[in-house]
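Supplementary Note 2. Why include the ligand at all?

Several targets in our set were suspected to adopt different conformations when bound, so apo predictions alone were not considered sufficient. For every target with a known small-molecule partner we therefore ran a joint prediction. The input for zinc ion is given below.
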Amino acid sequence: MLTPFGIAIRKLRLDKGMRLLDLANRLGLSSAFLSAIETGKKAIPDAFVLNVARAMNLSAPEIKELRRAADRTRKEVPVAKLAEEQRELVAAFARKIDDLPSKMMEDLKKVILKSKSDDVPFHRKRRGIHVPPMSTEVIRTFAEKVRSTFVDDSQIEFPIMDVLEFRMGSLLEGFYVDVQDKESMGIEEGRVIAGENVIILREDVYTGAWGDNGRDRFTACHEFAHFLMHRTVTMARMRDDSEKIYCDAEWQADTFAGPLLMSTRHLPNFKGPDDAAMACKMSVPAAQVMWSKYEAEGRLNHK
Ligand SMILES: [Zn+2]
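The joint prediction is reproduced in token form.
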């Protein structure tokens, strides 16, 4: 959740076209630290409003607004206390857990979709959670629609980070990207939580994706897929062996991310998978997977 201060500072940032990364750099902080302040996980440091005002070149009314939001946040969201209460709640809950029937436990578990560093797109080791089935064709059509919502059909590279950080928020009130450090994410690269309007990215993935790292861009698209397709799934259970891959959230997310980064409509522009990887700013392995899929479907006939 964003705090009132988080909402205010984010609004100012977006109005000025500043990424989390840009403001963090100007303040000499990490993106994850700034994100933690915006989401109330860390208290607003002393003199922070002034530093932000300087870094963002704010006008007097903007500073006043920001200061008011900071005061409200300090009053409403006592961070340290909140964390403490949550810890107590978790501890109390943990003591009760053993008494609950397992079916109920299952229902209580919130659906959290995670991507891990050792997962290879399209060749993920882990099975994902079970979701309603969707065919490749349905997912591809959806990906193309999402693409057209944000970019012109002639544009080859999909600007996933621009979409997530600047454009989604104007389509979906309250949506935001949260950046968290390695300490809190561990081997998770990204996370989407059912029912919440947030995509969480590990700091190196966030920075990498903005820096055109193909793998990180894929991860961001994969999380975007979870957000668009699986955020409303309420029951968490893993797909079992007898169930089709079409019901696997991880498979679906990869199947969405591929054509979002490499659209079939641009295939005539590419000489081969390496060329496509460069133009689409994808990793070579991911581009090769998409290329062979399209080839198997007879979509490269123009050659
Ligand atoms: Zn995933």
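The longest helix spans residues 79-97. The chain has a mean pLDDT of 87. Comparable summaries for the other entries are listed in the accompanying table.
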